[in-house]
Automatic annotation (TrEMBL):
Superkingdom in the source lineage: Bacteria
Protein name: Uncharacterized protein
TM spans (from-to): 6-30, 42-64, 70-89, 98-118
Origin species: Nannocystis pusilla
Alphabetized UniProt keyword annotations: Membrane, Transmembrane, Transmembrane helix
Length: 120
């Protein structure tokens, strides 16, 4: 059942996802280490925290167990994507960083859209 609380959490989660992707993209495109650091740690990290918090709240409100395969995949892949971004902070982003981030982002979207479950 969708309530106003669920809609607010969905809005917050969407904003978090936008911050995460925008901050990560800015970090991968930035030219200086300080710009990369700021985009990664202030914007992308905050966005990931908001997106994860919103996801946990939605799962709780919807009585969906956090052990569903699509949720575990989303958490793992989003953490991996953030690690790729963080690893590019000191030396700058290489083509490998960009490709890895894009592939992980597609994996996250696939898990959220197709929602695979254990034993299916």
């Amino acid at each position: 059942m969708e309530t106003p609380a669920v809609h607010l959490v969905l809005l917050a989660k969407f904003a978090g996802v936008l911050l995460f992707v925008a901050g990560s993209g800015a970090s991968l495109l930035a030219r200086t280490r300080e710009e990369r650091r700021r985009a990664t740690h202030r914007i992308a990290s905050t966005g990931l925290f908001i997106a994860w918090s919103g996801g946990f709240a939605l799962a709780s409100l919807s009585a969906i167990p956090l052990t569903e395969l699509w949720i575990v995949l989303g958490l793992g892949l989003s953490l991996s994507a953030h690690i790729v971004t963080v690893s590019a902070v000191e030396r700058g982003a290489t083509r490998g960083h960009v490709v890895a981030f894009a592939a992980l982002l597609l994996g996250i979207l696939g898990a959220m859209i197709f929602r695979p479950v254990f034993g299916a």
